[in-house]
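job 3f2a | input accepted
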Amino acid sequence: MEAIKSSSITGLRNSPLEMTPEEFRSLGHRLVDRVAEFLASLPRRPVSPAESPLQIRALLGDSPLPERGTPAETLLDETAKLLMGHSLFNGHPRFWGFITSPPAPVGILGEMLASAINPNVGGWILSPVASEIEAQTIRWIAEMIGYPRDAGGILVTGGNMANMVAFLAARKARVTWDARTRGMAGEGSRRLRVYASAETHTWLHKAVDLFGPGLDSINWISAGSDQRIDTAELRKKISDDRLLGDLPFMVIGTAGTTSTGAVDPLPEIAAIAHENDLWFHVDGAYGGFAAMAPNAPADLRGMGLADSVAVDPHKWLYAPLDAGCALVRDRNALRDAFTQHRPSYYQLLQDAEQAVNYFEYGPENSRSFRALKIWLAIRQVGREGYAKMIGDDICLAETLFELVSAHPELQAFRQGLSIATFRYVPRDLTPGDAKTEEYLNDLNKAVLAALQKSGEAFMTNAVIGGAFVLRACIVNFRTALSDVQALPEMIARLGAEQDSKLRPAALQGSRAAAN
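job 3f2a | predicted structure (515 res):
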């Protein structure tokens, strides 16, 4: 037999990735100091860089794969400078764009601690205390939104995945054939049907595409002028589909739409779902945690009636990305959706008595320790602290809406939860006719682009009744009243600048008349 080649390792292994405790401590202290200074400097920084993709890409260069390493101290200094100089800062007090919150400082530190221990929270034996911390965190999240604390649950990457986990649980529980084995080739030509408002987030498009029913399975229900689902139309379409021989199985309500923060009439949807034996799911990724706030819409209480709920701790629990949570009333329904063939290499994961193995509750096997940053923040501020912060965000959005409503060059549209929508309208223009509306849409697109490029604040947009509007979403514990008060005049100034550049000849007469 050929001799085994001798190893080049002698004595203690010298790995290029390893650090001595002294090296790690020195680098860690230096980086923490730099992060602390960065957080303190945020109000003085632009919210976002006015840089193109090509400019950002050029910062990294196009060098080949490094052949040799670089000292960690150099790398950390270079990378901190790169990230702190060329990022959009959702931790900035004037970030009111996508529904992403600033990271809680205790969560930042929690992420470091979680990475240091590095448990794989897929199986209990791989993550004993981490698994129990996740289970406790899920119970606390359920209590926060008025959901049964003994529900099944799992932390995932965000709202898309949390909603998809619930979708799969619903499919397993309500489909009348063995979809796991036979796929969607079920009972003859019966078509699965899911019902959702036209304002529902795009996660649903992905879910029906990835998991079998297809886009035609969605029966879209109109939203009224208040952006809430039309429950009379919902009842009728369920009845009509049954007469056609289809299989209605799921109805979705939204606790805080992405565009305007509208909350569907969840208790009424729950009653309709119960009457028709449908799985009732609530997408509360944005607004679910607002149930804790004293000024929350009463309809949020309907989440407690749902078969499943999705919420995002990286939105209104201010956790660092990423963190979503799927809750399912019947924990067995959640396990049934994900428990598959168990090969021999899973055996150790199953032996611990009464252990929660999270690979049986969701699509991932290997899972990061997402719970720690949430668990720490909940313990730091408690329900009372979150209720105040979320309530303050809502109050600030209400104040902003009042300010834009009173401004002569701003037209207010909708305000829901912590979202306010409005647009810039020059004093000499009267909205309504097609040409003016087309110009106002173009003008407000230019205003939004100018605002984002300026770095003064960051907002996004919504489209309401065909109108392109500016959208401020405040899920930000750093936003102060002075920040909100500064926004109307900021928009009016940028609006006037853009109007002077863009006003078409067909609309020039109205400006001249006004002057």
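job 3f2a | DSSP finds 17 helices and twelve strands in the chain.
job 3f2a | closed
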